[in-house]
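debug: dumping io for the single-chain case to check the tokenizer round-trip. Nothing else runs in this session.
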Amino acid sequence: MGRLVLGAMIVSATVFAVWYPRRLPDTPLRGRGNPACWLLVVIVLIYLNQVLFTVYVYRVHHGDAGFISRYVPPGWFDLADLGPIPGWFPDPGLLSVCLFRVSSFLELPFVIFGYLTVCRWLDAGAYRRAVRLVWPASIAYTITFCLIEWELRNPWTTVQDLLIRAASGIVVPLWVSRFAGDTGGRTRSLPDLLLFLVSAGALGWLVLAVYDSALLYNLGHVPAVLPGAAIATAVLVLARVLARRVRDGPCGSGLAALIRSAEWLAVVFFVPALAIRYGLNFGLPALAVVAGVTVVVAALALGILRAPGRAPLGELAAALLAGVALAGPAYLLASGYPEARLLAAVMAFLAGVITVCAFADRRVARGARLDR
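debug: decoded output
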């Protein structure tokens, strides 16, 4: 039954994503705020919850998480040694709420604010449209999270978690609509695009680090992920500083169409993203792949049709083939969680596409100069 509902969610979210976002207006947003700041707040709360959960396990269950780890797949509940900290709490039994309940509420804003942050870096129009999709996205994500919650149900918290996730699905879009803010940023050139790619890759690495060390209750993994997280943070900060200083430069028709397609992909992929991701791991890989390809094709069509100048179909076709040729090996060679392998594949795909488009645009520009 769960797989059937997940399949229906993938199909309905994909149909909605292909049909509706193009109707959204690109007009200024009300409110003031930055999703990156709220993402940082959510991450701090997630790690605080992990510390309190660890205190609970040490004080109430004598450091043994077996009472709950038996209900989840391997790779969860690697507890950290907090030294004397667990002894500081007079009534650790009250911290039982830190088991799944708090993270059930925080997981949705963690995903939503992360996605909106990437959209804001990419383009003002993409960000505004994504913010206007936050209600359908929150509904789709909440239903998907609840399905996975039920697949991993346990006698301790499942019913409460479902209710908390439903509450989060209402609070988060209200939160976003009030503190959405606006941005004037836009990706207009090859340097802009490369800096965006570096920023998104670094943020993706940090999101995976939080997922592994906190959302899976593996606070013991923090020493292992900390050096990589520090490097990713430094790279991210540097990329965003440089992105503010880059001046607009020339952009060929191929890159213009690619950038426009990337902007539309960020919008179109927003609603079905989570359902497609879990479809890959919960028995619906073929349907998830078809949905993902449909979303990409729709974004490419919007980007090519609305890009200024000529439509470089041959150039884009070669670029896409190069991207696919790199994405496949990257996915197969990458290790770790499915999200890490998908991130590697996406980065490799974009690297191939950008390289071919930039090279082809340069050849076209050189040929145009010689013809004069």
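debug: round-trip ok. Residues 338-371 form the longest helix (34 residues).
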